[in-house]
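User: We ran a pulldown and think these components assemble together. Before we commit to crystallization trials, I'd like a predicted model of the whole complex to look at. Sequences follow.
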Amino acid sequence: MNKINSIRKDWSLIETLITQDRKILDIGCGDGGLMEQLENNRNAITHGIELNRSLAANAIARGFNVVHGNAELDLSQYSNNSFDYVILSQTLQAMMKPKDILSELLRIGSKAIVSFPNFGHWKIRLQLLISGKMPVTESLPYTWYDTPNIHFFTIKDFLNLCNEMNIVIEKSIGLTSKGKQFDISESVTGVNFFTHEAIFLLSYKNFEPIKIKSSKKVFAKNSVIAN
Amino acid sequence: MNTKITTDLKLQSEIAYFNNVDLKLESGDIIHNFKIAFKTFGKLNSSKTNAILVCHALTGDQYVTDNNPITGREGWWSRMVGPNKPIDTDKFFVICSNVLGGCAGSTGPKELQNESDVTYGVNFPSITIKDMVKAQSLLIESLKIDKLFSVIGGSMGAMQALQWSIDFPDKILNIIHIAGALKHSAQNIAFHEVGRQAIMSDPIWKNGNYFENNEVPERGLSVARMIAHITYLSEDAMHRKFGRKLQSRDIISFGFDADFQVESYLRYQGKSFVERFDANSYLYLTRAMDYFDHDETFRKNVEFSHNPNNHLKYLIVSFTSDWLFPTIESKMIVNQLNSLSRKVSFLEIDTDKGHDSFLLEEPQLDNVIKGFLTNNFSKIDE
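Assistant: Here's a predicted model for the assembly, 609 residues in total across the polymer chains.
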């Protein structure tokens, strides 16, 4: 599976996690490919952030709402719960403070979608075990000295962090290196060994909208009229 | 109010006369009857959805493209506006008007007071960016256009575009805001003040009545322009363009002639400016920029505007080497819009050309403007 195919596969799986007519923030949106897909197939309202100047320029020129900026510095400007979904595709491992980013995602969005390459995959384990050198694979193709990926973690690590942060995993999809898809939560044994890439749909535990009842209407969070 | 549009052959410009009207200004003063000089390029489509208003900067005018009869040169944004250019006049109907208080045919200090033979001079009331935009909105109304597709401007033009989004959000679909800010900073006011002092301390200025003897306070106005011009460039750009190169061979005069190329360049800029710009107008327009301040009010305006402005798209562009309107100022606008999850795009373009970059060769700016307009227009056109 080459890089482009891998990203397309990632996107189509992300799409399956998203319902119609939602407001979405795509962090590291590139030139707007995923945004376009979600606008076309899910009638989504999309916003994006992109660090790379020329990718951001291309996305803007394609008519998308994209801010050229750094997610690690600029996420604070978004209001609480202002998006239905916040997407972080293939970049958590490149963040300076992944834990802070994760809590930011769920502050800004009702739900977060996070995808990442699994450092616990057997090929990676094998490379390190046998050659004794930092692994270089299709999904992590960089040598140790010029890699943008500075925080390597496995599915097990991620699940532990979510648990610690009271984050609920609503759905989880694993992909093998052959592109075979499976539900991570259902196949317990060997998941961390065989999952090449993982995609998670996350939300906060016990997060329920506050409902205020008046004589006629029930008001929920963000003063959206529930009924 | 009645409106009459005629063509001024000498100015090669349309003039819209607004008669039987009191234009109430932000200061509380009133201008009885006024005129706005403007040019249009391209054709308005039958559904009137393709109109773009381009707002000029401090010393610009309505001659955005094609020939400028005042200077005899190409319009100030010819490289951006025209057939197949980023702001494509084959596709869009482009309107550019001389601002209220300007000196290229619109009502301003150089013009005669209503139905008299007395020139306004410094009796012209103080105007603001809001007043300019109010006059522009009446012009757009008189052209029978309900909704502008876009309002575009750099520097003082960006201020007008932002003002449009605040005052008339339901009359526009998007703004392109280049090298601007929510407010004119203390440093910028300071530079303007030096320019104004240069003009007002020229003995020929005569409390603004220099026109009575057909004179121009050339020294003051050209010094004002020289100072301003420095602020439009960057150190890198100046170094690249001039360095310490001498004007004539390798000889220095040990005097105060223009030994260095950068000196003679500035002198030329100052000299050519006085031929096309009115000194009093310069005072009024710099003042209007100084008064521009939406620092405290912008967020509330966007959030609580009675007009539905959720549809509005904002494209905010800044330049890395612009120290007059630095990126941080643009980011303040972006932050506030993002905190209200408005449809905002932002790009900081990497260039050493300073504040003036928006007028110069910047391929990334061209691409972004062209793409933003074309793709957003095709979305409404579907």
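Chain B touches chain A at residues 313, 315, 331, 334-335, 338-341, 343-350, 364, 367-368, 370-372, 374-376, 378-379 (CB under 8 Å). That may be worth checking against your pulldown data before setting up trials.

User: Thanks, that helps.
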